[in-house]
Amino acid sequence: EPEVTQTPSHQVTQMGQEVILRCVPISNHLYFYWYRQILGQKVEFLVSFYNNEISEKSEIFDDQFSVERPDGSNFTLKIRSTKLEDSAMYFCASSLVEDTQYFGPGTRLTVL
Amino acid sequence: DAKTTQPPSMDCAEGRAANLPCNHSTISGNEYVYWYRQIHSQGPQYIIHGLKNNETNEMASLIITEDRKSSTLILPHATLRDTAVYYCIVRLTRGGNNRLAFGKGNQVVVIP
């Protein structure tokens, strides 16, 4: 069964450094998403991406964040200058159309 | 998207059916009911969704009341691996925003 994959599974970085989280969505899917979950808190929507542009973003998704689909398979989330409060699990998801979203296993980001 | 209400936690006996309730009294006519679950800190896993009719798949059954103000997710034979946080989410699938709004969910513990 096709699935969403994410790399790395765990990323440790120093405050102020840039990080790129990578996702490979399900191959025929057209819509892509990032969510995050701070330890002990709810899963929060960050951004959705369709047709090579952001279709929706939350108030969390500020200028420090960016997304890109650099080729036909990868979907990336970049955090330009990480802060301590960016420490969280980051989940990528994809959907064929605007319906059921399928999630990857997540990347645990730890900012020191 | 309409708000949902779930119990914060419940226990279920292994091998028995688990009935997980959800209230969504402000649901509108074209909003779907989606169920996801999250096992420990893994990515949310899609279970099932429906609009008006009851639905069944290999994982679960979804019973939606006639007035659509509440629903029940049924896990027919709960196993220890079904221990997870279960999320009931109401959303449009076309023309609305694409985000999934996760609440705190229902922490379900399957007891041997």
Can you characterise this structure?
The complex is a heterodimer of chains A (112) and B (112). Chain A is mostly beta strands. Chain A contains no helices and eleven strands. Chain A is globular. The model of chain A has no long low-confidence stretch (mean pLDDT 95). In chain B, the strands form two sheets. Chain B has a five-stranded mixed β-sheet with strand order 1-9-8-3-4, with no helix packed on it. A four-stranded antiparallel β-sheet of chain B has the order 2-7-6-5, with no helix packed on it. The chains are: A mainly beta (112), B mainly beta (112). At the A-B interface, β4, β5, β9 and β10 of A face β4 of B.
Strand and helix order of chain B: EEEEEEEEE
Major sheet attributes of chain A: 7 strands, mixed
Class by SSE composition of chain B: mainly beta
pLDDT < 50 runs, ≥5 residues of chain A: none
**What is the radius of gyration of chain B?**
13 Å
Intertermini distance of chain A: 37 Å
How many E-type strands of chain A? 11
Which ranges of chain B are low-confidence, i.e. pLDDT below 50, for 5 or more consecutive residues?
none
- Order the strands across the largest sheet of chain B as they lie in space: 1-9-8-3-4
- Mean pLDDT of chain A equals 95
**Helicity range of the residues of chain B?**
under 10%
Structural class of chain A: mainly beta
Largest sheet of chain B: 5 strands, mixed
In percent terms, what proportion of residues of chain B is strand? Answer: 35-45%
Q: Please, how many helices of chain B?
A: 0
Strand and helix order of chain A: EEEEEEEEEEE
Tell me, what's the shape of chain A? globular
| Morphology of chain B | globular
Question: Quaternary arrangement of the chains shown?
Answer: heterodimer
How far apart are the first and last residues' alpha carbons of chain B, in Å? 37 Å
Report Rg of chain A.
13 Å
